[in-house]
User: What shape does this take?
Amino acid sequence: MTNRKLQNPLIVLVNDDGIQSPGIRAMARAVMPLGEVLIVAPREQQTSMGRAFRGGGVAAPVHYEIDGTPVRAFAVDGSPAVAVRYAALLLADRPPTLFVSGINYGENIGNGVTISGTVCAAIEAASMGYPALAVSLALHTALHYSHDDSVDFSMAAEWGKRFARRMLTRGKLHGADVVNVNVPQAATRKTPWRWTRISNQNFYRSTITETPHGPVIDGYELNLVKGDHDKNSDVRAILIDHVVSVSPITMNLTARVSKSEKMRWGK
Assistant: This one.
């Protein structure tokens, strides 16, 4: 039994939509043939929490089955990043082979990816040295906070499985800490995929509503800026070309400022 477990990859699934999300269930079903699955997710909806380290307490075991097969699953009263820490430090019986975050309700593209609990759960796992994959499905914003089971996650799960398999068989993508995959809603198995860069475009913008007590920020909507024509951007891949976007992300936040620019600015 011990040798079998050592040879069987441990795939940890996390998300920001909560443990009851159909998205994480679809992802679990897809990757179960690739290894042993451990699900550790927030107890409640935690969309847009980014990498906040908030909440905690006891991780409660949850009865979880995929097509009649039991899966170890725990609900954490905390943010996605906290769930990652619980999985890696307390709940995994051996070092995880791969973290998969998602499938998220809604695309995570543009410069707001650092707001995403889905992407930042993967970043948290990467910060601890684990290969990490984030998977999101492009959907209307009205569905982002839902657990609407009319959403078909099967194709996004298939794409997530493809890239999870690559990470398990080919190893971590050198030069990247996280692989961020976004799948168009109408994607099929034959949809092309493209290496993309994270767009500088602010893909979402806040919505403001007037109330008797003054204006409040009460949500967000798509910021459909026409200026990002770079064919390599994740925004173009999803919104215009409708291909699967695969963006390598690095945690190296240091800007590449030239020596001459440092001299010019620093004088």
In short: Confidence is low (pLDDT under 50) at residues 1-6. The first strand starts at residue 10 and ends at 14. Residues 256 and 262 are 10 Å apart (CA to CA). The radius of gyration is 19 Å.
